[in-house]
Specification:
Elements: E1 2-12, E2 15-24, E3 27-32, E4 40-43, E5 47-51, E6 53-58, H1 74-81, H2 89-104, E7 108-115, H3 122-136, E8 139-144, H4 170-184, E9 191-193, H5 205-217, E10 222-226, H6 230-240, H7 244-250, E11 258-262, H8 268-277, E12 280-283, H9 285-290, H10 298-303, E13 307-310, H11 323-332, H12 347-361, E14 379-383, H13 395-401, E15 408-413, E16 416-420, E17 423-424, H14 429-438, H15 452-461
Bound molecules: zinc ion.
């Protein structure tokens, strides 16, 4: 399929330019003024064309819990999240569909789904997510959440540092991961599997090391949660006698194709290790605020040359999948952390982080993240006549710092037009909303019953009054 986008505003380092862009098959084939129209003409006047963003960390099944978990720190929140509420594969499909749609409607064309697996139905879970992403047409990195230690071991001073999760044997976990890779990993179709241990706090070294072997055997990207909370920093010292970053370096987990969600509690030596190994930080500002995890030292990362991109994180800790919202908060939040305003992130830099930075963390920066000839046609066209983007001033400044609503006219992924005239073409939205409604429960205020058993221990290790 061929498209000619005419007279679109495009950003270059020199400033805004009005140009035509041609797309043929999966890539950008021409960028110039007044191109002859080939294929379908798309009116780009009063519209801004940007490379698609990467929603570089989310957990789509959390959609079923959004809005429900009260204000709690991660360690207690997890007990609420994991309290038995068994999902059906059909629900996994629906929440993946909704996560993809919300990502697309806020400028994302790629997402990383650190996917919670239904115990005993792991392959069905992955199959349901793959089915959703193939239907929508979004570029999807599916990172099955794997760990082999029991949840209480993720708390410091619990004396259970190596307690095996009885339901999650290390070898069986690796086998199911390999089976999924063989079945679903298919970059040509926009579906990529990742090796993604949940986090050191829940994983044995064996699981991490064998996971690295698997990623090398099949050339997969790696992903994990890293030092999201202060409790995890304390736990790493207890468990390894060094920082979690040092331990990951020792295990040789860090690489240019490794992306690390959160990275809130890193010190300067840790930051140097990330820079030296060219690993990518995925900044999840809304989740970090919602769970009180802290403010990631993003300005320090950038000054050290560490690649940083943005994620929404799962909907139970952010409650929305709005990539532009994550970019906005993740940009201006850091103005409070450094008096020297010359270090603050500009809207232009924020867009670069979200697009090219996201691509880099997935090893795709030579193929996407820029509007350039021969790059993948993963593009988003913003309607600058949307009320939220008027009056026209600096369109990029307003896109990042404003609150864009219904601002997306079109989106392409791999050359396929998924959004046209503001509407998703690949999903029956009426059906999706009806299905989500049909699985809904009666409105209820949430209680924190599952937290009671661990709350006292958490309060005592974190130095809070009992
Ligand atoms: Zn997460």
């Amino acid at each position: 399929v061929v498209f000619t986008i005419q007279n679109a505003l495009i950003l270059t380092e020199q400033g805004y330019n009005t140009l035509d862009v041609q797309i043929a098959a999966d890539r950008i084939t021409a960028i110039a003024p007044n191109l002859p129209v080939i294929g379908e003409a798309v009116d780009g006047s009063n519209k801004l064309l940007l490379p698609g963003f990467v929603n570089a960390h989310t957990h789509s099944p959390e959609l079923w819990q959004r809005g429900r978990i009260p204000p709690l720190p991660l360690e207690l929140w997890l007990f609420e999240l994991y309290s038995p509420k068994s999902l059906q594969p059909e629900q996994i499909y629906l929440s993946a569909l909704a996560t993809a749609v919300e990502t697309l409607l806020s400028g994302g064309t790629t997402l990383v789904d650190h996917l919670l697996l239904i115990p005993g139905r792991e392959q069905e879970t992955i199959a349901a997510a793959v089915r959703a992403y193939q239907q929508v047409g979004i570029r999807a990195f599916i990172a099955p959440l794997v760990h082999d230690q029991a949840l209480p071991t993720s708390l410091p001073s619990n004396g259970q540092g190596t307690a095996q999760d009885p339901q999650r044997q290390t070898k069986a976990t690796l086998d199911l991961l390999e089976e999924a890779v063989l079945e679903y990993h298919c970059p040509d179709r926009g579906i990529y599997l990742m090796v993604a241990p949940t986090g050191l706090q829940l994983c044995s070294d064996t699981l991490v090391e064998k996971g690295i072997e698997l990623s090398e055997r099949y050339q997969l990207c790696r992903h994990t949660h890293l030092l999201e909370t202060r409790a995890q920093k304390i736990l790493a010292q207890e468990k390894y006698g060094c920082s979690a970053v040092e331990h990951l370096k020792h295990l040789e987990f860090l690489s240019p194709q490794t992306s690390l969600a959160h990275c809130v509690w890193l010190d300067d030596a840790d930051i140097d290790i990330l820079a030296a190994t060219s690993a990518t930080v995925v900044h999840n500002p809304l989740s970090n605020l919602r769970l009180g995890s802290g403010i990631a030292p993003v300005l320090k990362f950038r000054q050290a040359g560490v690649n940083v991109c943005f994620g929404c994180d799962g909907s139970a800790s952010n409650d929305a999948q709005d990539v532009l919202e994550a970019i906005k908060i993740g940009t201006i939040l850091h103005n409070t952390t450094d008096l020297d305003y010359r270090h603050w992130i500009t809207p232009y830099e924020a867009i670069q982080m979200a697009s090219l930075g996201g691509a880099k963390g997935l090893g795709l920066d030579q193929q996407m993240g820029r509007i350039a000839i021969d790059h993948k046609a993963d593009l988003v066209l913003y309607d600058l006549t949307s009320l939220s983007l008027l009056p026209r001033s600096d369109p990029l400044g307003l896109l990042v710092l404003g609150r864009p609503t219904q601002a997306i006219d079109s989106a392409w992924v791999n050359g396929q037009r998924i959004i046209a005239d503001g509407a998703i073409k690949t999903v029956d939205m009426t059906m999706l909303k009806q299905e989500l409604l049909s699985y809904s429960q009666d409105p209820q205020l949430y209680s924190t019953a599952s937290v009671a058993g661990v709350e006292q221990h958490y309060r005592s290790v974190m130095g809070l009054p009992i």
